[in-house]
């Protein structure tokens, strides 16, 4: 699935499930399901069990969405990836770009490593 451009996150303290649905391109029932699957996702519940998400949770949902929909992770895979890499970086609003840069850097490093190995094989007369 190709990368979807999501709207900027407004400077607000709390977001309703409808607002988060729009900001993250995910239906409300999916958000409720993800709450059960990802322990990091814990919106505040107020009157009548209404959910209110904070900025860091909107970032987390965008990261989960990216892992599942764009990178093809399973729920378990995405959960493990989030656990092993910590929570979403709350200082930067676009962690998807950071992830893409890191992936590009890894790809460049692997290609460089491949070239060096081929040079070593040539030196050894292989």
From TrEMBL:
Which residue numbers delimit the HTH merR-type domain?
A: 14-84
A single MF term (Gene Ontology): DNA-binding transcription factor activity
Keyword Repeat in record? no
- This protein's superkingdom? Bacteria
Do you know which InterPro entries this protein is assigned to? DNA-bd_dom_put_sf (IPR009061), MerR-type_HTH_dom (IPR000551), MerR_fam (IPR047057)
PROSITE patterns in the record: HTH_MERR_2 (PS50937)
- CDD domains the UniProt entry points to: HTH_MlrA-like_sg2
Keywords, alphabetical: DNA-binding
PANTHER family of this UniProt entry? BLL5018 PROTEIN, REDOX-CYCLING DRUG-SENSING TRANSCRIPTIONAL ACTIVATOR SOXR
- Output this protein's name: Transcriptional regulator, MerR family
Q: Which organism is it from?
A: Caballeronia arationis
The lineage, from the top, is: Bacteria, Pseudomonadati, Pseudomonadota, Betaproteobacteria, Burkholderiales
């Amino acid at each position: 699935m190709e990368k979807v451009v999501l709207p900027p996150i407004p400077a607000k303290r709390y977001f309703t499930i409808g607002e988060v649905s729009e900001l993250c391109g995910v239906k409300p029932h999916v958000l409720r399901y993800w709450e059960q699957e990802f322990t990091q996702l814990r919106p505040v519940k107020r009157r009548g069990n209404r959910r209110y998400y904070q900025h860091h949770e909107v970032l987390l949902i965008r990261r989960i969405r990216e892992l599942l929909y764009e990178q093809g992770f399973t729920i378990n895979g995405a959960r493990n990836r989030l656990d092993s890499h910590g929570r979403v970086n709350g200082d930067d609003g676009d962690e998807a770009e950071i992830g893409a840069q890191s992936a590009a850097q890894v790809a460049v490093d692997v290609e460089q490593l491949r070239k060096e190995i081929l040079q070593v094989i040539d030196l050894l007369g292989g």
